Amino acid sequence: MGVLKRFEQRLEGLVNGTFAKVFKSEVQPVEIAGALQRECDNNASIWNRDRTVVPNDFIVELSTPDYERLSPYSGQLGDELAGMVRDYAKQQRYTFMGPIKVHLEKADDLDTGLYRVRSRTLASSTSQERPGQAAAARAAAPPPPGGHVAPPMPSSPPPGTPPVPRTAPPGAGPQPYAQTRRWIEINGTRHQISRPSLVLGRSTDADVRIDDPGVSRRHCEIRVGPPPTIQDLGSTNGIVVDGQHTTRASLRDGSRIVVGSTTIVYRQAEG
Q1: b/e map of 171-180 (b: 16 or more CB within 10 Å)?
Q2: What percentage of the chain reaches a pLDDT higher than 70?
Q3: How many CB atoms lie within 10 A of CB 228?
Q4: Is the preceding omega at residue 226 within 30 degrees of 0, hence cis?
Q5: What is the DSSP annotation of 128-172?
Q6: Contacts with 120 (C-beta within 8 Å, 6 or more apart), sequence order
Q7: Which residues contact 121 (CB under 8 A, 6 or more apart)?
């Protein structure tokens, strides 16, 4: 049984009384759960052959109406979501640097039904430092290679390569971390491309979910290449790349992809 299915079944035991009304909000817990899974996948950092580190501290930003509905139950819901992340990490053989926490926050720029997930990697030793020092230390220190520390704004660029993996066990030299970094930007939110391909669509099973009625469940796929390309997956409305309707196209830094009414910007940089 899949992790998301087990998460849904656990929630069924909670959805009674007040919870029944809470979960009628536009944002459903299973959507958030799927987004947390993708956040782990998109920010997985390979330290060596036996260890892949993923973020352990997650912030789910919600519109004011959704936040007001869910915040009274944020503790219980956060625990369930953290348990789901733990189960998913075990299934994918991911590891964490510290305890898993999921927080809900209000974002005034989001409309009802929209949400945004940010994540960061917090080491347990750091989280036990004096209050205030831990946050300052994490803000100043770079994350693991390919990892993601939540920036002040979702569109902030990821920090540079940290020193830890450069002193990794033999065979894990600095060479793997001088590769081309690739990501896409959707409505100001950055999604790293850390695997050979990335499926975009409206389904919760897509690697990057796009909440747009003009987008098919599995709309298109970005492939690293070389060269990097985008392939339509038999969608209803097709794709437009740099102003041209197409079923397949090469991508360059700054390429603009339109699916439904959503614009996606492809980005890449060396180092």
Answers
A1: ebeeeebeee
A2: 71
A3: 19
A4: yes
A5: TS-TTHHHHHHHHS--STT--PPPSSTTSPP----SGGGGPSTT-
A6: 55, 57, 138, 143, 148, 149, 150
A7: 45, 53, 54, 55, 56, 57, 96, 97, 98, 143, 144, 147, 148, 149
Which pTM does this prediction carry?
0.43
If one counts every other C-beta atom within 10 angstroms of the C-beta of residue 203, the result is: 15
Using CA atoms, how far apart are residues 120 and 143, in angstroms rounded to an integer?
8
Among 2, 1, 56, 69, residue whose Cα is nearest residue 29: 69
Tracing tokens 């831990």 back to the chain, one arrives at 134
Is the model's pLDDT at 143 over the cut of 80?
no
For 171-202, the pLDDT digits (tens) are 444 444 457 888 999 988 889 888 889 999 99
Position with higher pLDDT, 99 vs 113: 99
